[in-house]
Every structure is written in C-alpha cells, then in structure tokens.
Amino acid sequence: xxxxxxxxxxxxxxxxxxxxxxxxxxxxxxxxxxxxxxxxxxxxxxxxxxxxxxxxxxxxxxxxxxxxxxxxxxxxxxxxxxxxxxxxxxxxxxxxxxxxxxxxxxxxxxxxxxxxxxxxxxxxxxxxxxxxxxxxxxxxxxxxxxxxxxxxxxxxxxxxxxxxxxxxxxxxxxxxxxxxxxxxxxxxxxxxxxxxxxxxxxxxxxxxxxxxxxxxxxxxxxxxxxxxxxxxxxxxxxxxxxxxxxxxxxxxxxxxxxxxxxxxxxxxxxxxxxxxx
Length: 277
What we know:
CATH architecture: Alpha-Beta Barrel
Strand order of the largest sheet: 1-2-4-5-6-7-8-9
Largest sheet: 8 strands, parallel, barrel
Strand content: 15-25%
CATH class: Alpha Beta
Distance between the termini: 19 Å
CATH topology: TIM Barrel
Structural class: alpha/beta
Number of strands: 9
Shape: globular
C-alpha cells in the first residue's frame, strides 16, 4: 500500500484506505498517466481506481466514458461514436480536457504505478453490443459471460504480469461472472448505485471481497445513515465484505464514513483526508 503504515495497521486504527478515483480526477486529467503518477506520489494514497474498456482493434485502454464527447475536443463527426467502434490509433490522437495527456493503454498505466499501490480496475465495457448493468437472468447468463470473457481475459492477462495487488469491480454481473471464471483468485467487488439487493446477490454469487456502494445510497442528504445503508452495512459485516464507498468530495463526508467504519473511501482528491481521524 502507499502509506507508510500498513493496510493492517490502518484497519486496526479504524482509518479507511484512500482510493484515488481515476487518479484523483478532481485534481488531474482523469485516467491518464500523469494522473496515476500524481496519485501514486501522494503518501496518503493506498490504491488507485481506473476504468478499462476495449477498442475496435482489441486494445485495452483506460477511459471512463462510452464516447469522446465529455472528455476530449474530438470533432462532431466522431465525438459521439462509441469507443468500441474506434481504433486505438484514432483514440490516441485526442487529449483529455485541457491537458496534453492522451488516452493511455492499460499496460502503460500499470507501468506508471508502483507495485506497492493496489489497483482497482473497473470493467467498463467489453467492446460489443448487448451488455447491460445489474443482474442477468439464468437463461441469459451464459451468453453474458461469453460477451465479457475475451475482454476480461485480456485485461487479466495484462494485469497479472505486474506485481500489483488487483481488485476488479463492475456494475455488470456478466463482467464479474467472467472475471471469477477467468481468474478465481482475483478479488471482486460489485458496484452499486441504487439497489442493495442486487449488490448482495452478486457479491454472494461470485464470492466477492468487497462491495462498492455510492455514498448517495448509504447516506441521506444530511449525511444520516439511510435504511439501505443500514441493510448494506449489516450484510457486509455478516459476510465479511469490505465496503469501499464512492465518490467522496468533502472532508465532512469522509469523516462520516470513517465513523461508520467503512474500509475504503474512493475520492476525487486526497484533500478529503483530515489531519487526524
């Protein structure tokens, strides 16, 4: 881990791990090599979260969105085209926001992160049609796994050549099912934005190590624990799942989560960490 104290010591002290959302996207051009380098150089960082998806020619890139419209100055003729319909040669010609950082490959990003930093890889899209988030029914589960399997296998082939500890997360059951079948020892975490029930089913079905809920699911607007948050916390404690909460933007929220006893805080800035918990 990135801090001088070990993760075990952090856990014993009740201090949640700090996970850099897209390389601290509140301060850096998200999911870029400069971002992950900056995040890794901060002594408060325990892990870095990145998003991966496939291009038309089968390259695994680190990029969040389905298209280029929000993050780049790509022309109208291409900005709304799905990423999986574009080649990496085309995509690499655009930079992120106002920076000069281009869209990187997973291989390049992992090479830029010290092996002491855990990497949370979110499986965003396998580069084919017909995928949907959440649960898939029994009749279509095999097909869902087939859609995700080549992509997931390629991601893990790249990730497991490094010395990093890897945690794979996704909103898609098909992605996590393929991940469990492809690499049984890699820890998994379902992402959940609105349905605790869905998260619990997926976490149990694929022997997850963690659950990654939205802070809006755990708390009310006044930062009181919601009924859904209570259910999720109780289930996580019973099943020994870690709770890593996204995306935290204020120190007030971070302190509330620390008091709740969450294991990780996924934040867009390291400045949410108070001088003392």
